[in-house]
Amino acid sequence: MPTKISLTRYLVEQQRVDGRIPGDLRLLLEVVARACKGISHAVTKGALAGVLGTAGSENVQGEVQKKLDIIANEVLIEANEWGGHLAAMASEEMDSIYLVPNRYPQGEYLLLFDPLDGSSNIDVNVSIGTIFSVLKKPEGSPGVSEQDFLQAGAKQVAAGYCIYGPQTTLALTVGDGVAVFTLDADQGSFVLTQEQVRIPEDTKEFAINMSNMRHWDAPVKRYVDECLAGRDGPRGKDFNMRWVASMVADVHRILTRGGIFLYPWDKREPDKPGKLRLMYEANPMSWLVEQAGGAATNGRERILDLKPGKLHERVAVVLGSRNEVERVTRYHLEAR
Ligand code: AHM
Ligand code: MG
Hints:
Strand order of the largest sheet: 4-3-5-6-7-8-9-10
Helix content: 25-40%
GO cellular component, one term: cytosol
Number of helices: 8
Keywords: Carbohydrate metabolism, Cytoplasm, Hydrolase, Magnesium, Metal-binding
Strand content: 15-25%
Structural class: alpha+beta
InterPro entries: FBPase_C_dom, FBPase_class-1, FBPase_N, FBPtase
Subcellular location: Cytoplasm
Binding site for Mg(2+) 2: 114, 117, 281
Bound molecules: 2,5-anhydro-1,6-di-O-phosphono-D-mannitol, magnesium ion
């Protein structure tokens, strides 16, 4: 039987053999993975553990919080605050940054997360997930402030997501391609099941919430119209559509078999650049996609080059198979 490679071994080898990650980062990622196991357990229990339904509160973005949004947020904080690897955390579900309490040692990393992505799917037993991103605290800055978090996605030192679906699966990059691990519930450990994931450059599958079509900008409408025209249209091929409404699930499908994902700016809220959050969703997913050979833009610029102006900044997202993302980006630039 081939040797099973655990997440622990994978990370130790990244540290020892390639010197790619420092020991502190390795331990931090292990703790994040452990927290994801805890969240996976709560998700699997569902109604049996009384974790479904709304919590009766709103987050900083005015979205109604689900009980699992709050539980997942607490699990991630409690698992990570005492380890000594972090200076602070930031979450889609918290108004401002969370400083590691003084009673614990302070580390040099910053952890950002969307604790439970795909909240609208929690109660209907459809795949949801946790998205995370790790940055290094800028050197020389005393203490830690929100300003320290406002770094471009290109500065990430690790990023990943854990999807709670038919299997619990963790996708991770530390800048050496994307590795995928599947949770072996009997052993309680993540086992490496795919390495050096590659997204095909071309695809016949697109993902977008079509109910917003009337609100889209012309370049997005042009792209989707051409896909819908099928083999008789300018693309000369038929396209299929998928929309799970959990970014983790849509991105996981794209990492697995290619495709393009769009959550564009639209006219419903003209003052907002998009719905998805730059620092908790777009940056980590964009780095994973790029590390797998795909591309990610906001329609005009590479997402990883965007300098965030604030913690909860939103952004338009176009990511996935390289040639399709480049096409959508070209349509936007031509429309200027
Ligand atoms: P959430 O983090 O509050 O769950 O919101 C993000 C989710 C993404 O996972 C998904 O791609 C998108 O919102 C779905 O939005 P919509 O319901 O507008 O289709
Ligand atoms: Mg989300």
